[in-house]
Amino acid sequence: MRTVARTALLLTLLSAPALLAAPPAATVSTVEYVAMGFPSPAHRWTIADYVAASQAIVRLTPDKLPRKGSPLFTRMMSVDNFVPLHDQRPLQARGDIAHGLLPPVRVITEVYMQRPALNAGLDAEAVDAMEMTIAYFIEIGTLLDARAAALPPGAPPPPLRGVMAGIGSSALERLVDVRSYRLTERVRLGNSLVKSLPALLAHADPEGRAAVRTQLTAITAAAKEPEIKSAVARIAASLE
User: Fold this and answer.
1) Domain extent at residue 66
2) Would 22 be classed as within a structural domain?
3) Is residue 122 part of a domain?
4) 135/158 Cα distance (integer angstroms)
5) Which of 77, 133, 139, 189 is 20 to 30 Å apart from 114, CA to CA?
6) Over 50: is that where the pLDDT of 14 sits?
7) Would 176 be classed as within a structural domain?
8) Helix (H, G, I), strand (E, B) or coil at 218
9) Position 152 confidence tier, pLDDT thresholds 50, 70, 90
10) Average pLDDT of 106-135?
C-alpha cells in the first residue's frame, strides 16, 4: 500500500471546500422502483434479488436513487441479507453464496460512493454503503479463516485476504473528505469504524494492518477538526 500517496490524498481532501448541499428529497415510490426491476424490500434478499437490483440501479440518475430511510434503501443495505453467510449451512454453500453476492453488492454500493451521487449530496447514503461493504467483507473474512483452517499445512492462503486492509483504508479516507461528506456523516462513520475496523482487520494480513495504522497516524496529523481527531484516536485505540 502506498502510504505516501495516501497521505498526499488526505492533505488534498482537507484543503477542499466543505460539502454544503443537502440531499434532495426522494421522489420515487417503492411501487415505482419495483416496476423498474427492483425486488420487493419486504423480504430478505437473495443473490438473484441483488443481481436484479444491481441491474436496475445503474439505470438511474443520482436524483432517482433510493434514499436513506426508504424501504428499498433500507433493504439494500441491510446486513440481514447476509444471514446465509453465517447460518448453519455447510461452509462450501456459504462460500458460494458469498461469491455470488460480491458482484451485485459491489455495483450497488459503488453507485452511492461514486462522484455523481456525492455531488448530488448523498453522503449519508454513501456512509451506509461503506458500512455495508465492511460488513460484507467481515463475513468474507470469517469464511476465509474457516476455509484456511481446513487446508493442509503449507497450502497457500485463500484469496481476498489482502483486500481487507484496502477496504478499511478506503473507509478511513472518507473521514477527511470534507468536499464530499458533511462532518456529521464523517463522525458517524468514525464511530462505526471503532467497532467494525478491528473486526475487518482481524482477517487482514500483517502488512495490511500495519499500513492502516500508518494511515491513521497521517490522518491524525492532518485533520483539523476536533471531532475527527477524537474519532481517529478512538479507532486507533481499538486496534491496540
Assistant:
1) 3-16+28-238
2) no
3) yes
4) 19
5) 139
6) no
7) yes
8) helix
9) confident
10) 97
